[in-house]
Amino acid sequence: MPEAAESKEVRVVGDPAIRSLQYCYGAVLLLLWGWSLGIDSIFWRDNANYSYGWVVAPLTLFFFWRRVQSQSAGFWSEIGAAGAIEWRPSPWLLAAAGLVIFPLEVTRSEYHQSGLVLWAINLVTVGITLAGAYWLGGRRLLERVLFPFLFFLTVKLLQIGGERIGQIMHHESH
Question: Number of structural domains, the chain?
């Protein structure tokens, strides 16, 4: 008696459905990074103590480029297959980004340039970027791009820490 074949649909990277999701994801990433950097640039411009943020974004891009361009052609074919196997993408994942971003933008507009809200916006941007790296290339690609994008968050951690220290110093001086 022959075994019944399982009817699992396995999508590969060249699949048009996967390709269209990749384009949508790329558009979402461009919008997210534009939004995040646009908000950050206002903060960096208005606050001389954090003007170093202008250096962090290009350094993040440089670190990302160095990590990605140093990989062999074999690496890219291996991770493409790994990404398609390890995580099945869903259009709902892209919609979930909007469900997180909308309340953050409303909060940001209410509490203009709140350090915590700005950090949360950047955390969401980096999180969605890293999730996409995992989707596109599995664990190996995620490991390659983890440092550059986590490096971008240092500008926010330093800003929040600096704000808190400034509040403590102001309170102690009075």
Answer: 1
- Helices 115-173 and 73-86, axial angle in degrees (round to 10): 100
Average pLDDT over residues 40-64: 84
Residue 5 in this model has a pLDDT that exceeds 70: no
The single-letter DSSP state of residue 70 is T
Q: Which domain holds residue 45?
A: 33-173
- Give the separation between CA 148 and CA 101, rounded to whole angstroms: 22
- 45: tokens are 């411009």
CA atoms within 13 A on the CB side of 95: 3
Mean pLDDT of 84-99: 66
Domain presence at residue 152: yes
**If DSSP codes are grouped into helix, strand and coil, which group holds residue 54?**
helix
Does any domain span residue 7?
no
* 135 within some domain: yes
Which value, to the nearest 10 degrees, does the dihedral of the CA atoms of residues 107, 164, 33, 56 take? Answer: 170
- Give me the pLDDT at residue 7, please: 41
